[in-house]
Amino acid sequence: MAKITLDNLAHSYLPNPKSEGDYALKELNHDWADGEAYALLGSSGCGKSTLLNIISGLLFPSQGRILFNGQDVTHAPTAERNIAQVFQFPVVYDTMTVRQNLAFPLRNRGNDAAYVAARVQKIAEMIGMEAVLDRAARGLTADAKQKISLGRGMVREDVNALLFDEPLTVIDPHMKWELRTQLKSLHHEFGHTMIYVTHDQTEALTFADKVVVMYDGRVVQIGTPQDLFERPEHTFVGYFIGSPGMNLLPAQVEGTTAQISGHQIDLPQGYAALSGKVELGVRPEFVRLSTTEGLPVRIVRVEDVGRHKIIRAEHDGHAINIIAPEGEGVSPDATRVTFDARGINIYADDWRVAPMGDLSERAA
Questions:
Q1: Does domain 4-239 have CATH number 3.40.50.620?
Q2: A Pfam family matched by this chain, by name (predicted)?
């Protein structure tokens, strides 16, 4: 297990990068704690796999260092980093049995035969393959082969880190939840440092202790699922986390009020003068329809998704999504919306602005 430090780390696939736009991975300075489970979350092309490959040693960065427990491993080969990596598509030895595949990393390191047998049996039970341990891998389905890859990554107890690069892409949807649960159980039992790359917010939020959200080659927020939901530090986090994502409305903010198209919204705390692109962000869960007060809207449609309704509305050309509890009717007279003050965030040029006098945030 290892604490992983990213020190002034950046990477460009161009031989002579000249500007920030030339970097696929923009400068990072972060410490990832020993024994925690992290998810790297973001849309395709944001730099997730590039960062994972630098951590694993498959790619050397253009600048900066990566350290495991304070030791510089920036240019160390993968074999010397003592990590296990599971890729998006299954990598198995087709001529070997499932048992032999799972045992290979342990036998390759000269572990005792009795320990190998016990460990293989435990992992096989965890991934649900104990009944096919003596079958050749060649005849198995793609999702079964990926389960072997996951098991082979998890079979060693002494690794510095377990790295997963979109490992559930080829897994049957009904198996995904079970395997995520098993990975989380393994983490709780053995305390490995785990990094899990995904573009799926459900996978990230259900797997990780902390989610590392990436956008355009940079980390825009690291936090718990609750942090990301309640206080998105960047508008991309608000948009990407949640279904639907955060509503964002252009606003003029002064003190404890926001003006949206000439309509006043009271804010729970005051803000200093803001410049640039200023927006009010509020999640659909904190928006309520009203017949008498609030921001005027036009309801476009209502989507009943079973456990709640998603009401699609618009104000002055800007979409506003509202989540209404199951069974709550939608009155034709409800042509306004109000915002729960607890759910309001203010952004300037896409970054969240801390309200004045919030000492906890200033300290953070």
A1: no
A2: ABC_tran
CB contact at 8 A, 298 and 313: yes
Q: How many CB atoms lie within 10 A of CB 325?
A: 8
**pLDDT number for residue 364:** 44
Joined together, the tokens standing for residue 15 give 């031989």
Left if phi > 0, otherwise alpha if psi is -120 to 50, otherwise beta: which for 58? alpha
In whole angstroms, give the CA distance from residue 311 to residue 275. 32
Nearest to 160 by CA among 88, 86, 56, 87: 56
Which of helix, strand or coil describes residue 170? coil
d(CA 159, CA 154): 9
The 10 Å Cβ neighbour count of residue 53 is: 20
DSSP SS3 for 10: strand
Please, where in the chain does CATH 2.40.50.140 lie? Answer: 251-363
pLDDT digits (tens, 9 = 90+) for 271-330: 998 999 999 999 999 999 999 999 999 999 999 888 899 999 999 999 999 999 887 878
Residues of the chain with CATH 3.40.50.300: 4-239
Domain 251-363 belongs in CATH node 2.60.15.10: no
